[in-house]
Automatic annotation (TrEMBL):
Family according to the record: Belongs to the glycogen phosphorylase family.
Reactions catalysed: [(1->4)-alpha-D-glucosyl](n) + phosphate = [(1->4)-alpha-D-glucosyl](n-1) + alpha-D-glucose 1-phosphate
Sorted UniProt keywords: Carbohydrate metabolism, Glycosyltransferase, Pyridoxal phosphate, Transferase
Superkingdom in the source lineage: Bacteria
Name of protein: Alpha-1,4 glucan phosphorylase
Pfam families linked: Phosphorylase
UniProt function note: Phosphorylase is an important allosteric enzyme in carbohydrate metabolism. Enzymes from different sources differ in their regulatory mechanisms and in their natural substrates. However, all known phosphorylases share catalytic and structural properties.
Length: 791
């Protein structure tokens, strides 16, 4: 049977026997589910094969522990990796269904906040593509990241409910359940120590197979869901207390109810700590059960098990593993600590002091009374072994998760070269001096299957036609495009791809948001979580200054630009929410100005998520990566843009530095202070005010905002922002403004030369191969995990 015929049969079978429909009565969701099941069957075959091979080989396994997996939609990913795009399109077309419409019916699983969660998802896909035996462990949040809409320009949050629609990808594992305890007391009988928790909830496993390129391998994403041990209190029910009868179940379920929005003000919430322990304890129990079944001897654990901690969120893994080995299995404390360290490694994703996880010891001790004792013992053992050391993980009545993770890990990694160096000289300076070989760099990457092949079929098609399909799992082959770039015929086709992508995005914005824009404009895109260090306010200030300048001289030869924004602000981060509102207010005024209309438009697309990124990135001309140098650990959006042919306007921050090295300085619009200069400038008193006085354009933009030009009824609306910028300006928006303006005008000039611009864009694509997450994962396997590919 041809692949198309076989897929057709499979879809019809599932429509009929899984969903009880024939094609005549199937609704959109039935088609989406039937296609998903047909694809899932093929994934499952690969998955069961890979699981068997892993067991038979006795190979070391990798476990990626993360509070977030920002996986997005999975159907297209499955279809693309199995190379069934043409077949799926053909079958759906036979039944009068549109492929894109069916794909868009799938809810976007937003089980993460942003970069850290999306990185985990890219890593899972690369681990499968490479054939490294691995599991992701996370939480099956009932509600992912909130849904964002705008009311009068202001962000409004609604709960996200991705499981409300039918979801095709998970396998419930009722036989895989663990009891996870909280609170209670610690009991000592001579040598033996036992923790008796007061509250116990059950973690139940839900498995999602993660398929790699060409379906050669599949790994497992195992997400834990909270449930009560005794779900229903019959006694209370029989006494007429119907609400009370359901209470144990409701309480246990709150553990996996909702993802915490990345928000430092939310820190210290008891439920968050419960979630962290819930994930970690369940994962470790599962890992040890699997190890026991296959190998038994706990001393071999580090040879067979590599556990990666995605930031400090699962840092309780150190003490928990020691607790199991020492308290429950009877190994000595020292040996338990050695074994645990032999298994664990830790990735740091931020240097922002306010984002470093710490817990109040009272809260921590109440919830995890045995673990806090073990942490003290880890701390004193480490201090004994390293007498020169001063910095404790237990100062100021706090538990410092970064220090704990560092001490309990055999390797600690940063996520870009610059970030890794800064780790050594700032947060982990002391620990690095004690353990100079522990910190390593593994620069982030992104999966080219999702972020080029699937999201940008036009460009992927041109590339494959030019250099063959080997680039898909060997992205450095994109280098082979460089000779084509000299060929004007080829370059015109490259430029046409971008134009078509822009037209497609324009049409979509028109139909879904009523935003009509001219696809000939320069599409200038900043999409990422809202944060002061990411400096969306620098972007809008420059936009406002640009608007004023166009009005001064409307007949000049301006380069038409569309400023596109997307991103969510944490619900309690009021400054970030004000920036969103300012952008929307400025958009309302500027978009309505007939004088500047041909040259400048602004749009903030609501509810930025993985699916929206997949639409926007292929259509971008320019990538905004403008964080204060030293603050963005890596960035991964920056890589997606470069790969899809959008040159960067950016600072020397995070992975921008490496992107610029790879694509060439002449294909990157650099501006701003370096991380070192930033640290120096902060010491200059009145640096912001001086910068404002020195740049009339900046001054005018700030004046317009302060005088209520964009908030006519309420001029003081943005005085918080203007006062911050003219005062403390910790993120040096004012100090970097003038150079940012200069870089943007260079962009204007460069964009006018269509051919030269296309060449710059194409060189960004050709030279971005190094930013594949396949390369990153191979780095982790070799430098940190000691893991092998089984392919
Ligand atoms: C912590 C405590 C309580 C509640 C929430 C959190 C929390 C949640 C998410 C803290 C941080 C995060 C997310 C951090 C993050 O996404 N960092 C980004 O990681 C990317 C992958 O390495 C980098 O590319 C980005 O530079 C970095 O900002």
């Amino acid at each position: 049977m041809s692949p198309t015929a076989s897929l057709r049969e499979s879809i019809i079978q599932h429509l009929r026997y899984s969903f009880g429909k024939d094609p005549e009565h199937a609704i959109l969701e039935d088609w989406r589910m039937a296609l998903s099941y047909a694809v899932r069957d093929r994934i499952t075959d690969a998955w069961i094969g890979a699981t068997g091979k892993t067991y038979d080989s006795g190979a070391k396994r990798v476990y990626y522990l993360s509070m977030e997996f920002l996986i997005g939609r999975l159907l297209e990913d499955g279809i693309v990796n199995l190379e069934l795009v043409d077949e799926a399109k053909a079958v759906l077309e036979e039944f009068g269904k549109d492929y894109g419409t069916v794909l868009s019916d799938e809810p976007d699983a937003a089980l993460g906040n942003g970069g850290l969660g999306r990185l985990a998802a890219c890593f899972l896909e690369s681990l499968s593509t490479i054939g490294c035996p691995a599991h992701g462990y996370g939480i099956r949040y009932e509600h992912g990241l909130f849904r964002q809409s705008f009311v009068d320009g202001r962000q409004v949050e609604q709960p996200e409910h991705w499981l409300e629609q039918r979801h095709a990808w998970e396998f419930e594992r009722p036989e895989v359940r663990y009891r996870i305890g909280f609170g209670g007391h610690v009991d000592r009988r001579g040598e033996t120590v036992r923790w008796y928790p007061a509250e116990v909830v059950e973690a139940e496993a839900f498995d999602t197979p993660v398929i790699g390129w060409k379906g050669r391998w599949a790994n497992t994403l195992r997400l834990w869901s909270g449930r009560a041990i005794h779900p229903f209190d019959l006694d209370r029910f029989n006494h007429g207390d119907f609400a009370g009868a359901a209470q144990p179940e409701a309480l246990a379920r709150t553990i996996s109810r909702v993802l915490y929005p990345d928000d430092t003000t939310e820190q210290g919430k008891e439920l968050r700590l419960k979630q962290e322990y819930f994930l970690t304890a369940a994962a470790l129990r599962d890992i040890l059960r699997r190890f026991n079944n296959q190998f038994g001897d706990l001393r071999k654990l580090p040879a067979k098990v590599a556990i990666q901690l995605n930031d400090t969120h699962p840092a309780i893994a150190g003490p928990e593993l020691i607790r199991v080995l020492h308290d429950e299995r009877g190994l000595s404390f020292e040996e338990s600590m050695e074994i645990a360290r032999g298994c664990l490694s830790y990735t740091n994703h931020t240097l922002l002091p306010e984002a470093l996880e710490t817990w109040d010891e009272t809260l921590f001790g109440r919830l995890l009374p045995r673990h806090i004792e073990l942490i003290d013992q880890i701390d004193s053992t480490h201090a004994k072994q390293n007498p020169s050391r001063m910095n404790s993980m237990r100062a100021d009545h706090q538990v410092k998760m970064g220090q704990l993770s560092f001490v309990m890990a055999h390797h600690v990694n940063g996520v870009s070269a610059l970030h890794t160096e800064l780790m050594k000289t700032t947060v982990f300076e002391e620990l690095h001096t004690l353990h100079p070989d522990r910190i390593v760099n593994e620069t982030n990457g992104v999966t080219p299957r999702r972020w080029l092949l699937a999201c940008n079929p036009r460009l992927a098609g041109l590339i494959t036609e030019s250099i063959g399909e080997g680039w898909v799992d060997d992205l450095e082959q994109l280098k082979g495009l460089e000779p084509f770039i000299e060929d004007t015929g080829w370059l015109d086709r490259y430029a046409q791809v971008k134009r078509d992508n822009k037209a497609e995005l324009s049409n979509w914005m028109g139909t879904t948001h009523g935003l009509h824009v001219d696809p000939e404009m320069l599409f200038d895109v900043q999409i990422k979580r809202l944060h002061e260090y990411k400096r969306q306010h620098l972007n809008i200030l420059e936009t406002i200054a640009h608007w004023a300048e166009i009005r001064d001289n409307p007949t000049a030869d301006w380069t038409p630009r569309l400023k596109l924004f997307g991103g969510k602000a944490a619900p309690g981060y009021f400054f970030a929410k004000d920036i969103i509102r300012l952008i929307n207010d400025a958009a309302a005024v500027i978009n309505a100005d007939p004088v500047t209309a041909p040259y400048l438009k602004i749009a903030f697309l609501p509810n930025y998520n993985v699916s929206l990124a997949e639409r926007m990135i292929p259509a971008a001309d320019l990538s905004e990566q403008i964080s204060t140098a030293g603050k963005e650990a890596s960035g991964t959006g920056n890589m997606k843009f470069a790969l899809n042919g959008a040159p960067t306007v950016g600072t020397l921050d995070g992975a921008n530095v490496e992107i610029r090295e790879h694509v060439g300085a002449e294909n990157f619009f650099l501006f701003g202070m370096t991380a070192e200069e930033v640290m120096e400038r902060r010491k200059v008193e009145g640096h912001a005010w001086k910068a404002v006085q020195a740049d009339p354009r900046l001054k005018r933009a700030l004046d317009l905002i302060r005088d209520g030009r964009f908030s006519p009824g309420e001029p003081e609306r943005y005085h918080g922002i203007t006062a911050n910028l003219e005062g403390a300006d910790y993120f040096l928006v004012c100090s970097d403004f003038t150079d940012y303006w200069r870089a943007q005008r260079e962009v204007d000039t460069a964009f006018k030369d269509t051919r030269a611009w296309a060449k710059m864009a194409a060189l960004n694509t050709a030279r971005s191969g190094w930013f594949s997450s396949d390369r990153t994962i191979r780095g982790y396997m070799a430098d940190i995990w000691g893991a092998q590919s089984l392919l």
